[in-house]
Amino acid sequence: MKKQIYHLGLFLLLAGCAEPVSEIPTINVEIKSSPVLEEVSVESLGGAVEMIPLETSDSCLLSKVEQLVDQDFLWIVADKQIYKFGKDGKFIRKIGKVGQGPEEYVAPQQIWVDEKGKRLFVLDYFGRKTLILDYEGNVLKSFGLPQDYSLNKIAFVDKELLYTSMNNSVKPDLFVCNLETQQIDTLSYRERIMGTEGFLGNTYIYPLKDKTYLYHYFNDTVYTYSNKKLTPAYVFNLNGYKYQFEELEIVADYTPKKPIDGPRIQLSNFVELENFLFVPYTVAVPRRKLDEADARLLIYDKRNKTLYADAQLVCTQAPALNLKKSDPLILSTDQKSFYTYKQAEDLADENLIEGLDPDDNPVLVKYSFQ
């Protein structure tokens, strides 16, 4: 079906909001240019750790877990394929087919599970389309997406699909799609086309407390989204540690247009739970190579308003389950936990899981907090 994009005007996603930012809560981030690591135990935060070995079979061999959604089942994107597991890690089936056809996906960029409607929404980044599947993997609908946008996030909100793009590092595109007509309306449109600046502006979109939240690196405000409106929820203030546009723009001699005069933060993820915020990030300092940036983890206790700016999350009872800097954080949908995964070969000698073989599928590790 032919689609049109209607521009509804700039939605002030990053330039402003409906109420003064000063009147909403603020989280101020303070860091040190050199690492000041503080061990924070899961137990001290009132948390617990659970391991879920993923069943290994000839038809289910996973190397890297790219996304996980725990709605009714464990829906896992790994190696360009969607898998359905039970909550106990038992393999159930593959979901959908990999291919170039209209009812196949090339590589799922992101999935969103509609628990009420028992549907999966699949954003196929390279296939430039959206697939809607039932829980058994049957395709209910498939429709194409605009070819000139790099749509990288999807959410099902208010019976419509919300998309964000990565076309621009400064102001992200924000689209909403009517499922019946597949008409795509533009809620926020970038003012600049990426040119010589570095790409740092990822958008994070996630459910929390029956609302959908959005946060973008180049904007200090975390918003809730509903009925084609963004409402400020709180400010996540990186202070002077956020890159400025001119510091990312490269001039003729391959140096920044504006010299970087202090440490800068680049977020790797943004995982918000009911009572905690977990933000993996790196710190780059002037005259240091980019690959030498320090990888760190920020933890914010929302109830006690306590900030751990450079934390290592450790498990006192099982040090093998300590959260390493290289471990990805995967948001859970129960609002109280997040996941990472460990390769079986890294846990096989720890005697934590009976019968675990080094060649088995990865083991999910769930960190839960009350």
> How many helices in DSSP terms?
2
Helical percentage: under 10%
Distance between the termini: 47 Å
Say what oligomer this is.
single chain
Low-confidence stretches: 1-21
Question: Structural class of the secondary elements?
Answer: mainly beta
Largest sheet: 5 strands, mixed
Radius of gyration: 21 Å
Shape: globular
Rounded average pLDDT: 86
Strand order, largest beta sheet: 1-16-15-14-13
Report on the architecture of this protein:
The chain is mainly β. 2% of the residues lie in helices and 43% in strands. The protein has two helices and 29 strands. It has a five-stranded mixed beta sheet with strand order 1-16-15-14-13, with no helix packed on it. Strand 13 (151-157) and strand 14 (160-165) form a beta hairpin. It is globular.
